[in-house]
Specification:
five-stranded mixed beta sheet; seven-stranded antiparallel beta sheet; 12 helices; alpha+beta; about 45% helix; single chain
Length: about 375
């Protein structure tokens, strides 16, 4: 299983200048390679090297760095084409898709640059790295990270690491190959219902309310609007200081919720059943005031956190179809749109049971999860003689 460990670099003044110059140089050259690729119909990586490698070497960057620049550009076009095929950029004649297809991909000056073990070496004991730059290789660049991240780096780091600059601070994002735990045979399943009013509700009674997070987002939105309206230097400075604060807060909240759910499943030797919510933003139609709330809903991030934490802990996990889980009675199985009285109340029209709507849905998800698991499980019946 691949995860990433992020470390913060603490370079000296001359090292900072070298790192900044390197990122700007390689990203400027990546933009040039992108123009060449676009002009030649985005050829394969080997063909693209024939058109660009010699020029990159003439610009003074190393052989490995040149290869990574070309590969970065080719990967960016591969991602673009995959998004187009998946319909993520709209229909064939939509403005967004035409705009994406009609011009070369560009790279920000501080965009990530991949490094392999030939260009980057780690000293975990002293917490320093030796890294290639356009000014030559610089050594003893200090880095800081959490104790857990350092342990993961020492044991499982494998593959490339990305150098990025964010708000004047340099980070290395290292890829780590962490072994997955062997999944156990679950004694039942815990259903997890994801939502906005309640971020996550499980069939065992845990509920992560979304009220505080919604209020936090509204405060941040109002504050950003207030500062943007002022348009003064101090207001712009405050906006820069607060950038990504909401994103970090939401990410931390999702980490806590995911850890709580996975820990409970591991403690009770049960599996986890999640809803397959892909495409929900395209399917759901809401009024304009509600769209900000829907598109701020980080269900995909929370789902990813639950998946990777479950894999590390060996917790069995399945995805189920979420259709009608909110309209189906978990007691008698009666399906009726009117069963869902409002956001938080469920009253079955068949048997009259009254329950919390999200809790009822989580029980339905748990039942479907067990059905999916049993359908995919190997038969344990002894073979007939």
């Amino acid at each position: 299983m691949k995860i990433v460990a992020q470390v913060k670099l603490m370079p000296e003044a001359d090292q900072t200048a070298a790192l900044r110059s390197t990122l700007r140089t390689v990203n400027d050259l990546a933009c040039w390679v992108s123009e060449v690729a676009f002009a030649h119909g985005v050829p394969r990586e080997y063909e693209l090297r024939k058109h660009t490698y010699a020029h990159l070497k003439e610009q003074g960057i190393g052989a490995q760095a040149a290869q990574h620049v070309i590969k970065k550009v080719r990967d960016a076009y591969a991602t673009l084409h995959a998004n187009i095929r998946a319909g993520n950029l709209g229909k064939p004649k939509s403005k967004r898709r035409i705009k994406a297809e009609s011009k070369p991909i560009t790279f920000r000056p501080e965009a990530a640059q991949p490094y392999d073990d030939r260009c980057l070496s780690w000293n975990h004991d002293q917490q320093t790295v030796s890294i290639w730059t356009t000014a030559g290789r610089i050594k003893n660049v200090r880095f800081v990270c959490s104790a857990d991240a350092l342990k993961v780096l020492q044991q499982y780091r494998k593959g490339e690491s990305d150098l990025i600059e964010r708000d004047g601070v340099f980070y290395l994002i290292a890829t780590c190959e962490v072994p997955e735990a062997e999944p156990y045979e679950p004694d039942g399943f815990i259903g997890v219902d994801l939502g906005i009013a309640n971020i996550a509700t499980t069939s065992t009674g845990y509920q992560a309310a979304g009220r505080s997070l919604t209020r936090y987002r509204k405060r941040q939105l109002a504050l950003r609007a207030k500062l943007q309206k002022k348009r003064t230097k101090s207001a712009k400075r405050r906006l820069k200081e607060r950038s990504r604060r909401e994103q970090r807060h939401v990410k931390n909240t999702n980490h806590i919720i995911a850890k709580t759910i996975v820990t409970e499943a591991e403690r009770t030797a049960r599996g986890l059943a999640l809803e397959e919510l892909k495409g929900i933003r395209q399917r759901v139609r809401l009024r304009k005031p509600q769209r900000v709330t829907l598109h701020s809903w980080t269900f995909a991030q929370l789902g990813d956190f639950i998946v990777y934490k479950a894999k590390r802990a060996g917790v069995p996990l399945v995805f189920v179809d979420p259709a009608y889980t909110s309209q189906t009675c978990a007691e008698c199985g009666h399906v009726d749109k009117r069963n869902r009285v409002d956001q938080g109340l469920f009253i079955c029209r068949g048997c009259g049971v009254v329950a919390h709507a999200d809790r009822n849905a989580s029980h339905n998800i748990a039942t479907r999860g067990e059905t999916v698991w049993n359908a995919g499980r190997e038969s344990r019946v002894p073979a007939t003689p």
